[in-house]
Amino acid sequence: MTLADACAFAEAQGWPKFRGEQIWRWVHAQGVRTFDEMTNLSRDVRDQLAARACIGSLKVAEVQTSKDGTRKLRLETRDGQSIESVLIPFEGEKTTLCISSQVGCAVDCQFCATAKMGLKRNLDAGEIVDQVYLARTLLAEVAPERRLSNLVYMGMGEPLHNYDNLVRSLRILCDDKGAKLAQRRITVSTSGLVPKLERLGKEDVRPNLAVSLNAPNDEIRDMIMPINRKWNIGKLLAALKAYPLEQRRRITFEYVLLAGVNDSLRDAGQLAKLLRGVKCKVNIIPWNPHPEAPYERPAPAVIDAFQNECKRLGLPTYLRTPRGDDIDAACGQLANRAGESRTPLVPLRVRREPPPPPPVD
Fold first, then answer.
1. Are the beta carbons of 360 and 307 closer than 8 angstroms?
2. What is the CATH number assigned to the segment(s) 1-55?
3. What residue segments make up the domains of the chain, in order of their start?
4. pLDDT, tens digit (0-9, with 9 covering 90-100), for 249-302
5. Hey, how many other C-beta atoms are within 10 angstroms of the C-beta on 210?
6. Which of 11, 62, 84, 141 is the catalytic position?
7. Which listed residue, of 213, 268, 274, 277, carries a Cα 20 to 30 Å from 128's Cα?
8. pTM to 2 decimals?
9. 331 is known as an active-site residue
């Protein structure tokens, strides 16, 4: 429920409107998990709430900890589904939480483990929000010196495929009377659903935007991201150029580097030309291995050469160091493997040209 929903619920029970806000603030500002903890409500009101409503819908089934401190939470829903979210520590006390928006995914990006699950269902707004609250509780227990500073909708699923619940969850999390998360600290990642991008730009909540691009042209993107056949790069960029950006904000393009597929100097040149004039930055993500896809991570020299060429051509790029890849928690690896041992990969090389030599100082 949003705050307005909670107030309407209270009135429907014959209670004063302020009672709804009291209840809502207990959940979203104070973080209680039971109605008995709402000490300024009468016993009768708490009993009625317990009979008609619930707080939280997810259960922590497993927590895995990476050697780099990243923690992956496998969470169970009421209907027995599993989703994953990831706590990623950074320098100092800052911590980013990566959350899921769906059970599985329908977009079918060829390099992503989640895509191989298919789409089972959307998460409701409560299940999206509850990931944040459970992670915040865990963080307070295992690393009280840290704080949840950033939130990214980059876990399982395509957030814009679950548009209504995405926006509702944003409204709940950003409400000043609740969790009070800053919109500028929240990023929503999408594979490029053009009509929903246009709609998101008109909302009263507007997070940062990250776009999973991963190719410098339609030929490559058609191959690794089938969604491009419906909304190609030209349509996607037109929607992004029209997207209202606040001052100092930029669109983030995510570019997963696949050996021999999209990692050549020619690809870097095409990418820089493609994004010229777009207010953006590019996060280069060397592919994180998993058993469901037959790609390879490029060699370090190839990664460096690609990034250097982008920078030489004036494209702001940042290299994303893999986090939590030893527990299948890194970008593109979420697939509910529940602590299973890894299956060895059989690599497939589809290199179109020899790798560039290492850069010369």
1. no
2. 1.10.150.530
3. 1-55, 58-327
4. 999 999 999 999 999 999 999 999 999 999 999 999 999 999 889 899 999 999
5. 19
6. 84
7. 213
8. 0.91
9. yes
